Amino acid sequence: MIAVGKVHERYINQACEEFMKRLRPYYPLEVIEVRHAASGSLSEEAERILRLLHQDDMVWLLDRAGTQLSSEELSTMLADISHRGTRRLTLVIGGTFGADKRLVERADFVWSLSRLTLLHEWARALVLEQIYRAAKIARNEPYHH
Questions:
Q1: 18-24: long-range contacts at Cβ-Cβ below 8 A with a sequence spacing of 24 or more?
Q2: Whether this model's pTM surpasses 0.70
């Protein structure tokens, strides 16, 4: 996961840490934070993110204009990615002002958690929780309901 900015709220950081710990048995996970652009420049943030992407990465960009998924649909999509032998899935969470068009163009999938505008910090916690839920669904383990 590549995210613009740091999580400043302690309770959100605790939630992120908890779900990252829960995810370890299911998926290798690395979170990279890139500095937000002081000027609010989406282009500057995009450049920082694009430099971190590998050419063969599958990239999912979080954006409220993207496709919404149910937890079951997310689980199926993640399982399909795994079965295809994709080396690395990179989830990108933009900053306060969204994502530059170059990130949208680079994305293999644009995922929306909601049509609501969410704090990017909350989006990070929600993404981690939903990936954990998807892993549990894929393995038919309790947690989903």
A1: 19/125, 19/128, 19/129, 19/131, 19/132, 20/128, 22/132, 23/128, 23/131, 23/132, 23/135
A2: yes
4 three-state secondary structure: strand
Amino acid at 33: E
In 3D, which of 135, 95, 128, 96 has the Cα closest to residue 113?
A: 128
CA distance 61 to 94: 8
Judge whether 46 and 103 are in contact, CB under 8 Å: yes
d(CA 23, CA 36) in angstroms, rounded, equals: 26
* pLDDT tens digits along 88-126: 999 999 988 889 999 999 999 999 999 988 888 999 999
Of the candidates 70, 143, 67, 54, the one whose C-alpha atom is nearest the C-alpha of residue 111 is 67
Three-class SS of residue 16?
A: helix
What spatial distance separates the first Cα and last Cα of the chain, rounded to whole Å?
Answer: 26
User: What is the per-residue pLDDT across 17-63, written as a single tens digit (0 to 9) for each?
Assistant: 999 999 999 999 999 999 988 887 899 999 999 999 999 999 999 99
